[in-house]
Design a protein that fits this description.
Distance between the termini of chain B: 56 Å
Order of helices and strands of chain A: EEEHEHEHEHEEEEEEHEEHEHEHEHEH
Oligomer: heterodimer
Number of domains of chain A: 2
Number of helices of chain B: 7
Strand content of chain B: 25-35%
CATH architecture of the largest domain in chain A: 3-Layer(aba) Sandwich
Shape of chain B: globular
Largest sheet of chain A: 7 strands, parallel
Structural class of chain B: alpha/beta
Radius of gyration of chain B: 22 Å
Low-confidence stretches of chain A: none
Distance between the termini of chain A: 60 Å
Radius of gyration of chain A: 22 Å
Mean pLDDT of chain B: 92
Number of helices of chain A: 10
CATH topology of the largest domain in chain A: Rossmann fold
Low-confidence stretches of chain B: none
Mean pLDDT of chain A: 92
Helix content of chain B: 25-40%
Bound molecules: flavin-adenine dinucleotide, adenosine monophosphate
Helix content of chain A: 25-40%
Largest sheet of chain B: 9 strands, mixed
């Protein structure tokens, strides 16, 4: 909401984390966000700010305990059958209503597909700003405002953004940017139970069924510590077998360049880059990838980049921390073999 | 079906840089193109029109030269285009942009469907589509990966998440954002190209749109960019391994094991 004389900024406090449930469990990014929320709330101690986790879904009973261990002072739980599937309409009505009721100063969510669908709806419904895909959050010492840092233009520019006259200050945050704090099972907190109103359930949108990749972490590129990617050098769908085998050996996910998807060797869910996913694993192993800029923008923030390419002058070899000059069909199986022994 | 497709003209991301003096984006000499994600939105609009009849109207907010992107869309098969252009519209964040675009949708009237790309490659926010849904108070379906069934009043769609997918049903009017896997965009025909040169592009400014001056442009934007910088350079030197395959593999495994538990 836009602030005016009667609604001074001071009436907004607390740092809210919009919790996310995946396959019946609290998403990793939610725990990471509780970590940064703790830091932000401590920096806003003047405001007596608390860390609040808003958790929505169905069958959530007991989940608050783990959130208290991860530093939530308060959990607002909305446990309702209508929240079983992710329905943007129902979810956004509930979040917007609760924001108006409790007036948080800051609201953060994971920059997941759900977070990135829900947060912009909510921001407009309650008339405030939203900064997408943040990689840094801090409190400005002087103004007490949230400083939101994010990459734009495919990572070529880093911008810092403020939301001065509207509350809450909202951001979505990339997974893997912040660290969860260590779980402390002596911590407790306050549980508040809220419900979904009947009129909020009447929507023109219905989710009929849901399919989960389950433990197929080979597709879940966001959760992977290691990604093994194949490019055109892999030559064929069968060629990807060596990539899958290495990914298994390192318990990682399989990535791919657009060229391989366009050739039909692997599905779009694996595509990394400008028109695919942006990933930031600890280790990215690019096999038979040339390193065109559209691919690089999706993976260049990985901690350690390894490239395996026949051509020592391929652009990816300049970016890589470790550049292996060689035939991927010789090198990759060799690595897999060594790791499996 | 009356379909509005939102397309944005963006700079080629590979060439973007900051002017060290003004600390602003350098715009001169940078190539421009249609936001690559929007080509899928456009193709989907055309496919739906081919199936259900009706029209595809392309909507773009931007400088005068964004007319080129609209003409390109018409060359591909859109029926008409509207450019939202005016000084006070400049500097809008996603809140203001989605408000302005939704005002245009209201002015067009009787629209059944708004289709946006997944995100624009300059801002990378993916917020304008959902923002329009909120301003219009229409349901949204984001990250659409497949049209399962399409009727004139209702769509059955597949959406993608990181951890899976789902099938949903939405009543029109609605706002969609589509992924690359929904279709393969067509290339303009010669006839389309010729036609696109002749068509008049409608231009609306803030007065035509009847937008609230408090809600547009820099002043109407809740968020403000306070600084920009270049990303920190990767501090690294490249270790090159160019021995035989088994030597390189052994060396690499050592490095891997020093970084993660295997
Ligand atoms: C608007 C737009 C958006 C795009 N978005 C994306 C995107 O999101 N993601 C993406 O990846 N691309 C994207 N692209 C495409 C991108 O420009 C490149 O075409 C693509 O990334 C190249 O894929 P590649 O590296 O697999 O293939 P190539 O460029 O053909 O490279 C293959 C490499 O494999 C090496 N090689 C061959 N055989 C072997 C072997 N046996 N052993 C070892 N090495 C070998 C070769 O030396 C070469 O370097 C986009 C392009 C456009 C125009
Ligand atoms: N200025 C604009 N004019 C027309 N459509 C836009 C504009 N900005 C964003 N869009 C649409 O909204 C989508 C998401 O953009 P963004 O939220 O900026 O990432 C794009 O793919 C376009 O379909």
């Amino acid at each position: 909401m836009k602030l005016n004389e009667t609604e001074i900024a001071d009436s907004y406090n607390d740092v809210w984390v919009l919790g996310e449930i995946v396959d019946g469990q609290v998403h990793k990014v939610t725990l990471e966000l509780l970590g940064i929320a703790r830091e932000l709330a401590d920096k806003r101690a003047v405001n007596n700010s608390k860390v609040v986790c808003l958790l929505m879904g169905s069958g959530l009973k007991g989940m608050e305990t783990g959130l208290f261990y991860q530093s939530a002072d308060r959990v607002i739980m909305v446990d309702d059958e209508s929240l079983k599937f992710f329905n943007d309409s129902v979810y956004s009505s509930v979040v917007s209503r609760l924001i108006k009721k409790y007036k948080p100063e800051i609201l953060i969510s994971g920059a997941t597909s759900k977070g990135r669908s829900l947060m912009p709806l909510v921001a407009v419904q309650i008339e405030t700003g939203l900064t997408a895909d943040c990689t840094g959050l801090d409190i400005d010492k002087e103004s007490g405002l949230l400083l939101q840092t994010r990459p734009a233009y495919g990572g070529n520019i880093i911008a810092t953004i403020k939301c001065e006259n509207h509350r809450p200050q909202m951001s979505t945050v990339r997974q893997g940017v912040f660290k969860a704090i260590e779980s402390d099972d002596t911590r407790t907190g306050e549980l508040i139970v809220e419900s979904v109103l009947e009129e909020e359930k009447r929507t023109r949108f219905t989710v009929l069924s849901e399919e989960s990749y389950g433990d197929d972490s080979k597709i879940n590129l966001h959760d992977a510590n290691v990604i093994v990617s194949g490019g055109r050098g892999v030559k064929s769908a069968e060629g990807f077998e060596v990539i899958h085998q290495l990914a298994n050996a390192v318990e990682g996910a399989v990535g791919a360049t657009r060229a391989t998807i366009d050739s039909g060797w692997i599905s779009y869910a694996h595509q990394v880059g400008q028109t695919g996913l942006t990933v930031q694993p600890e280790i990215y192993i690019a096999c038979g990838v040339s390193g065109q800029i559209q691919h690089l923008v999706g993976m260049q923030s990985s901690d350690l980049i390894i490239a395996i390419n026949k051509d020592p002058d391929a652009p990816i070899m300049q970016l890589a921390d470790v550049a292996i000059v060689g035939d991927l069909f010789e090198v990759v199986p060799e690595i897999t073999k060594l790791l499996s022994n | 079906m009356k379909i509005v497709v939102c397309v944005k003209q963006v700079p080629g991301t590979t060439e973007v840089s900051i002017d060290p003096e003004t600390k602003r984006l350098k715009r001169e000499g940078v190539s421009i193109e249609m936001n690559p994600f929007d080509t899928y939105a456009l193709e989907q609009g055309i496919l739906l029109r081919e199936k259900h009849g009706g029209e595809v109207i392309v909507l773009s907010m931007g400088p005068q030269r964004a007319e080129l992107t609209i003409r390109e869309s018409i060359a591909c098969g859109a029926d008409s285009g509207i450019l939202l252009n005016g000084r006070p519209l400049g500097g809008s964040d996603t809140y203001a942009t989605s408000y302005i675009l939704s005002q245009a949708v209201k002015k067009i009237g009787d629209v059944d469907l708004v289709i946006c790309g997944k995100q624009a490659v300059d801002g990378d926010t993916a917020q304008v589509g959902p923002g329009m849904a909120a301003h219009l108070n229409w349901p949204q379906v984001t990250y659409v990966s497949r049209f399962v069934e399409s009727g004139p009043k209702e769509l059955k769609l597949e959406r993608m998440h990181e951890s899976g997918s789902d099938i949903s049903l939405v009543e029109l009017p609605a706002v969609l954002t589509v992924l690359k896997d929904v279709n393969i965009p067509r290339i303009p025909t010669l006839k389309g190209r010729l036609n696109s040169r002749k068509v008049d592009i409608t231009i609306w400014n803030e007065i035509d749109l009847g937008t609230d001056p408090e809600k547009i442009g820099l002043g109407g934007s809740p968020t403000r960019v306070v600084s920009t910088r270049k990303p920190d350079a990767r501090d690294k030197h490249t270790i090159v391994l160019n021995g035989n395959a088994s030597e390189s593999a052994r060396e690499l495994v050592k490095i891997l094991k020093s970084r993660i538990e295997l």
